[in-house]
Amino acid sequence: MIVAASTACIPDSAPHEVFERLADLEFMNAEISVCNEGAITPSDIAGRFDVYVQICRSLRRLSPVSIFYEIDPTAPDYLDNFKMLCEFAKAIKVVVMTVRSSVVGTPYNEEVERLRELVRFAVSNGVLVGLLTEAGHLTETPSTVGSLCKSVKGLGVTLDPSHYIFNHTKPIDYDMILGQVCHVRLRDTTPTQFQVRIGQGVLEFGRLVIQLNKVNYRRALCIDLAELPDIDPMAELRKMRLLVESLL
What is the pLDDT of residue 142? Predict the structure, then answer.
């Protein structure tokens, strides 16, 4: 396994500055977070495709290992941007792209067809689609995640354990989907707070690493931290990196 950090951890900075700051924190791998309101947007990449490719190819101290396409699936330009990002991933030699599932209430068969279309195009570009586990979406229960993976050949899972802890009196058991995991996103969490300072939550990082080792998971453990009030975000990122690295 390798340790990575999301570019979303460094908001309000130019892309090359984000990568430099993560490298200064001694991260060697990064997840590129693409959203409409972040440092890196789909329109930015589409409009300066070759520039972004060159930025990623010229990085010396850090390597992109995944892309998080954070856009809502109902966005009108969702599919066009997804296809563009698959081509971008191929150009920078990134294999895993995380996408969000549709919200709860979306017809199951409709979601299956949508995901099949995504996977078909991604596979043609050598990209593996990881479906994010997320509260309020169809992936909020591991049983539905497993069912979607069975229905959509080639679909993987991006595991975010926080969504199976926050707002639950007891953490939801997700052992049944560990074999399909292709990416992992991490922060510390409690049943009442989605993110807390490192060490103040209930996420058992050591147990998670043991579980992933049992299914021969060899990809990234990606740290995704939002800024907390009165807390040095760079210190938290460094602390989280050291914690995760100590478990490998």
Answer: 97
Identify whether the C-beta of residue 221 lies closer than 8 Å to the C-beta of residue 3. yes
> 5 with 241: CB under 8 angstroms?
yes
Do 39 and 248 touch, CB atoms closer than 8 A? no
CA of residue 223 relative to chain centroid, distance: 9
CATH of the domain at 145: 3.20.20.150
* Stretch 4-19: mean pLDDT: 89
State the pLDDT confidence band at 14, using cuts at 50, 70 and 90. Answer: confident
Q: Which helix (H) or strand (E) holds 232?
A: none
CB 156 within 8 A of CB 183: yes
Banded model confidence at residue 11, pLDDT cuts 50, 70, 90: confident
- The CA distance from 87 to 237, in Å, is 30
What domain count does the chain have? 1
**Taking the CB of residue 218, how many other CB atoms lie within 10 A of it?**
9
**pTM tops 0.90:** yes
Angle made by CA atoms 241, 244, 247, in degrees to the nearest 5:
145
Strands 29-34 and 2-6: parallel
Domain assignment of residue 136, given as a range = 2-246
